[in-house]
Design goal:
The protein is α/β, with parallel strands linked by helices. The protein has 12 helices and 9 strands. It has one domain: Rossmann fold (3-Layer(aba) Sandwich), CATH 3.40.50.1820. InterPro entries: AB_hydrolase_1 (IPR000073), AB_hydrolase_fold (IPR029058), FrsA_esterase (IPR050261).
């Protein structure tokens, strides 16, 4: 079954999702000697900073559909196995580090991350970038994990030209912030999610991150983004040992908004999909197939 509508939110073991995986997940394509697959590293200019970026260019002359892949907070899991699988399936994939993270110049904040996602999307539509990487600007999708799922949802919601959005155990910072009325939940978020993730970040602090979460508004509200995404292909892949309840809430909102191309699944794994990477790559590649020509 290609699309799932709420209230059906499937909880499936990784082995079920991964059998059989698409060929692009487990095998290299034939080499294209004239237009080989390639990787390019560069910097995307951004206000008060820059984004250290990498393009995984698909083999072939193109034009290629292109995926903007957004990592989470702070980005210890970058999901580059997903980038490689999507490239083997014929997609360009752009990844980058947000301002103030992992050496990208600037100041880190959730608000800046949202802006950085929009900046990267606009970069993909520049004529010189389209020519350089063989991009089909009419086929750009966004995907994101955790905080990157929130960024992807907002980027897709704000730009109707994005053809689809793939969210991997996405984080809803507005919901997290509302939970701070319980001091134990606030402390758990600080100790379990924020404190250990600060070393790769600059221009911020634990206090700044906690304050931004506590006062998160509509731009960081995952559920609020669903009506704008409901008319296009949308995938919400939650993790049972992660924050999958946020994906469930978003899927309910998407269905309420009339989503007709919704895939909503829960995988028995942790937030990083540590024992379900093949399953996750398979789900992404299968989802991307609907946009191939």
């Amino acid at each position: 079954m290609r699309y799932f509508l709420f209230p059906l939110f499937l909880t499936l073991p990784a082995a079920v999702l991964a059998a059989p995986p698409p060929v692009a997940v487990i095998a290299d394509p034939p080499a294209d000697r004239l237009h080989p697959a390639a990787m390019a590293a560069f910097v995307i200019p951004a206000p008060d900073g820059a984004l250290n970026a990498v393009m995984y260019r698909a083999a072939g002359a193109g034009p290629h559909p292109t995926l903007l892949l957004l990592h989470g907070f702070p980005g210890n899991e970058q999901n580059l196995d997903l980038a490689q699988a999507a490239r083997r399936a014929g997609w360009n994939v752009l990844t980058f580090h947000y301002r103030g993270s992992w050496g990208s110049p600037g100041r880190f904040s959730f608000a800046n991350c949202l802006q950085d996602g929009a900046t990267a999307l606009a970069y993909l539509r520049q004529p010189d970038v389209i020519a350089r990487f063989g991009i089909d600007p009419s086929r750009i999708a966004v995907a994101g994990h955790s905080m990157g799922g929130m960024v992807a949802a907002r980027v897709g919601a704000d730009d109707p030209r994005v053809i689809g959005t793939f969210l991997i155990d996405p984080a809803d910072f507005a919901a997290i912030g509302r939970g701070f009325v319980d001091p134990k939940k606030r402390e758990a978020f600080l100790l379990g999610e924020v404190r250990g993730d600060m070393p790769p970040l600059v221009g911020t602090s634990e206090e700044a991150i906690m304050a931004e979460t506590a006062h998160a508004g509509r731009s960081l509200d995952l559920v609020a983004a669903m009506p704008a995404l409901a008319g296009r292909p949308l995938a919400l892949i939650g993790a049972t040992r992660g924050i999958g309840t946020m994906a469930e809430a978003a899927a309910r909102a998407a269905r309420k908004a009339g989503a007709r191309h919704l895939e909503a699944e829960m995988v028995e794994t942790d937030h990083s999909f540590s024992d379900a990477r093949i399953a996750l790559a398979g789900r992404l590649v299968t989802w991307l197939e609907q946009f191939q020509r």
